[in-house]
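Continuing from the previous page of notes. For each protein in this section, the sequence appears first, followed by its C-alpha cells. Read the first protein now.
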Amino acid sequence: MNKVAITGAGIFSSIGRNIKEFSESLKKGKTGIRFINYNSDDLDISVNMGALLPLFSFKDALEEYSFIGKNILPKAKKCSRAPLSIQVSVLSAMEAYTNALLHKNKADSERIALVVAGSNISPRYGYNLYKSFQKKPRYLSPAYPLHYMDTDHIGVLSEIFQIKGEGFTTGCASASGNAAIINGSRLIQLGIADVCLVVGPMADLSPMELQGFYNVGAMGGKNFADMPDKVCRPFDKDAEGFLYGQSGACIVLESVESAKKRKAKIIAKTTGGSIVLDGNSSSNPNKEGEIRAMLMALKNGGIYPEKVDYINAHGTSSPLGDKTEICAIKKVFGKNISKLWINSTKGLTGHPLYSAGVVEAVAVIIQMNQNFVHPNINLYNPIDENCRFAGFNAEPAEIGVALSNSFGFGGINTSVMFYG
C-alpha cells in the first residue's frame, strides 16, 4: 500500500484565521470561548457561551490568495453569498491547497479526491429562512435546495479546485473529522487517488440544536457562569459539559511518491486509523469501544503503544466522557501513561463537532513540527494524577508519534495515527 503524507493544512477558527494565528494561539493557550447571544425578542435559549467566529469579510479574506491564479479565485468569489459554513470551508481549503503547492505544482485533477466531514452541517441556514418562508413561500431562494445539502461542500470545492476524482461526505457525528481522514487515507493507500483534500466544515448550529444539546445535559455553562473562559475544562474534576465552537479546517493527504514528484514539503505522515462501533444508539461513551479503536489504530499502523509520545484527546469537558477516555487510555498504554503527553484542543476552540478531528489534526501537525504541546488552560484539579497532562502553559516536547481520538454519538469511536 502507498504511504500517506500530509503536504498542506489550513484553518479558519475562533482562535486563528490561518495556520500562523492558530499556532500562536495554541502556544499562548488562547481560548475563543466568550459570551454569545443567540436570543431575539421572541426567543430565549439557555446557551449563552461558545467559541464563535469573529466577524470577517469573506471578500477581504479571499484577497490574501490573490496570487493563486485566474482559474481558481473567480470561482471562489461566487461564494460571497453562500452559507457561512461554505465560506469557511473555502478559506481553510484555500490555505491548505496553497501550502501544498497544488496551485504551482499541479496534480492530475482526475487523481485528486475530496472528503468532507459531517452531516446536517448547516441547520442554521434553513432555520433563518423559515420565518420569511412562512410569510412568502414562493419567494424562497432557488439556491436553497443546493445549500441545505451537505454535498454542496463537495460541489463548491470541487468546482473551485477542479477536483475530478472521488468525492463524498462522512457523517459520524463528532467523529466525522477523523472518519474523513481515515477514508481519505484509504483512497491514497489503495491507489485510488494521488491527492485528497480532507475538509472539516464548520458546524453552523441553530438555536434549536444548541438548546437540544443543553436539554440532553451535554453542554456546560451552569458553573463559572460569569467566566466563560473558565467553563470548558477537559479532564478537570469541575468539568460539566462541552461548549460549542465554530472552526473549519482542511488537510491535504498525498502519496509520498506524489509529494516527491511534485516537490511538495511533507509536514507529517499518517497511517490512517480505525473506526469501531459500540452497537449502541445512546449518547453515553463506551470504554471498550474506545480501547478497541486505539488498539486497532496502533495495529493498523504497525506502531507499539510505547512508541506514542502524545495524545490529542477527544476531551470534551464532559465528566463521564473524560473519565471514560482516561480509563481507556490507561488500559491501552499501561505503565507508559506517565510518559505520554495528553491535552485537548477543545479547551481552546470549544467543540467544533463535525470538524473536530480535522481541526485537531492541524493542531497535532503544528505541535509536531514546532516541538511543543499546547496547554490545558483550565486543568486545576485533574481527574487522574497519574496522567501527564499538559499544564497551564505550553510545554516543550519532541513528538515523533501522535494519536488523535474522536468519539461520536451513535457509538462511533475513532483514532488516527500521525508521525514525523
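Done with the first. The second protein uses the same format. Note its length before scrolling.
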Amino acid sequence: MQYNKEYIPREIFNDVAQHLQRPEITLITGSRQVGKTVLLTQLRHYLLQEQNVSPEHIFSYNLDLVQDQQTLQDQTAFLQFLRDRSQKSRLYVFVDEAQKVPEAPRFFKGIYDSEVNAKLILTGSASLEAKARFKETLAGRKRIFALPPFTFPEFVSIYDATLAEMLAKRDAINPVDIASLVRLYKEYMRFGGYPRVVLAKTTEEKEAQLQEIYSSYVEKDAIGFWGVQHPPAFNRLLRLISSQVGQLVNIHELATHLSVDRQTVERYLMLLQETFVLQKLAPFFRNPRQEVVKAGKIYFLDTGIRNIILGNTSDMVQRVDCGQLFENAVFIELERVRRNHGGRVYFWRTKQKAEVDFIWEQGQALFPIEAKYGISSLKASRGLQSFMQSFRITHALFIALEQKAAILPKKDFDLIYPFQLEKNITE
C-alpha cells in the first residue's frame, strides 16, 4: 500500500490543545510507541505558530535522556529555575516519560501547588503503582488524556484523505468507496494501529516492528520496570488470552494452565490493563439471579499486538479466527466512540448462556450489537431475541465486514459496516 507521508493529526489533539489554557496539569497516557512524543511536538508547534508563544517560554524534557533526568532530580532547583523565567509570561513545560522522575507525583504536585506561572504537560506509560500514586496525589490537579494507537479514521487518512474526510463528515458512502474501506479495515485488523507498524512498507517490516514493540514492552516495562517475577508465565498468559478473545475470563483455569497462583494471574491482568494492552469488558445485568454479574471478557486494545502474540499475522483469507479478530476490532471501535461521545459498553450473558456480543448504553437508550465477520441473513440469535424481549428493545445493530448477500432491510435491525458504527449509535 502507498501512504501519505505528511503528519497525521490525532483525534484527541483539539481537546488537548484547548486544555493547554487550563491551569491543571495535562497528563497524556498511552502504551509505548503510540505517538505521545509526536503529539507533544505538534502541541509545541501549535503554541508557537497559532498561539504566538515565544520559544523562550517553552521548555521540553525527555526523561529517556540522562541529561534531562539530571535536570529534574532536584525539585527545589527546578522550581527556582521556573520562577526566574516566569515573572512576565506563562511558561509551558513539556515532560516526556514523566513517570521516570524520582517521586514523580510529589515532584509535580509541589510545582503545581507552588502556583508558579507554568503549565505542565506530561506524558507517560501507565504503571500500577505510579498511576495509583498520581491518582491520589494529583487529585483535582490534572486531566488525563488517553492516546491509543491510530484509530481507523486516522489509519484511513494515511492512505486516502478523501475517504478520511468522508468518514469524518459521516457522509453516505458509495459501493466503490465501501470496497476500499473494507480492504483497509482488513489491513487494520491484521496489523493494528501502532504508527511505526502502519508506516512500515512491507509485511516483513510490519511484523518486525510489532515484534519489537511487544518484546520491548515485556523486557523493559513488564520485567524491567514493574518487576514481573515469572516472565514465562506472563508470556504464556498473553498467548492464552490472545486465543480466547471474547470469552469469559476464568481466573482459576488460567492459573491452572500457567502453574501459578490466582493472585499472580489477577495481578498480571491488572498490569496489562493499566498499561493499555488489554481492556476488560464488564457484563450488563439487571437480574443477578439470571444474568452473569461477575466474570468479564477481555479484548486487546490493538489487534496487531494480539496477532503477533498469537503468531498469526495472516490475511483474512487464510485465518480461522476471523470472527474473534473482528469482534475485537469492533470492541476497539466502540471504545473510540466512548472516548469521543461518552456512553458505556458491556456484553450480556445469562446463566443459560444466551448472549449478546455488545450492549451500548447512552443515557436511557440501549443498543444490542452483534458482530459477525461475514453475514448472509439478518436472523436474530436466541440471545439477541431474549435480550430484546427482556428489556423491551425494538432495535438492534448487526455489524459485518463481509456482507455476502443482498439482504432485505428489516425494521428491527440495521446492518452496518464497523466504520459506520459511530454514526449509527450517536445520531
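What the second structure shows: The chain has two domains: 13-146, 153-426. Residues 203-225 form the longest helix (23 residues). We return to this in next week's lecture.
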